[in-house]
C-alpha cells in the first residue's frame, strides 16, 4: 500500500520515496527539501487539520494536505 506524507500521524517518521505531480507544484515541493531519500517526521496537524507541520533536515516546514498528497513515503525513518 502506497502511503503519502499526509497519511502519517504526528510522531511518525519516514523517508521520501518520490514526489509526484508536475510542473511548478512538484518543483516547489522539491525546492523545499522534500527529495527522495530524505527523512521527515510529522510534528503536528493544525487544529482544523490543515496544514501539517513536518521536521526535515533540522527545520520545520508547513505543508497543505493537498501538497503533502504528492509526497510518497516509505518506512525507513528511525522510528518508522
TrEMBL record:
Any single GO molecular-function term of the entry would be: transition metal ion binding
Do you know which Pfam families this protein is assigned to?
A: FeoA
Signal peptide interval: none
SUPFAM superfamilies hit by this protein: C-terminal domain of transcriptional repressors
User: What are the coiled-coil residue ranges?
Assistant: none
**In its keyword annotation, does this UniProt entry include Transcription regulation?**
no
Keyword Iron on entry: yes
Tell me which UniProt keywords the record has, alphabetically.
Answer: Iron
Q: Where is the Ferrous iron transporter FeoA-like domain?
A: 3-75
Name of this chain's protein: Ferrous iron transport protein A
Q: Which organism is it from?
A: Thermosyntropha lipolytica DSM 11003
Amino acid at each position: 500500500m502506497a502511503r503519502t506524507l499526509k497519511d502519517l500521524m504526528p510522531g511518525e517518521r519516514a523517508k521520501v520515496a518520490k514526489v509526484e505531480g508536475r510542473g511548478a507544484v512538484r518543483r516547489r515541493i522539491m525546492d523545499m527539501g522534500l527529495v527522495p531519500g530524505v527523512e521527515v517526521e510529522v510534528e503536528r496537524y493544525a487544529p482544523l487539520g490543515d496544514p501539517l507541520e513536518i521536521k526535515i533536515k533540522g527545520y520545520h516546514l508547513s505543508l497543505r494536505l493537498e501538497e503533502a498528497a504528492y509526497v510518497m513515503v516509505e518506512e525507513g525513518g528511525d522510528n518508522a
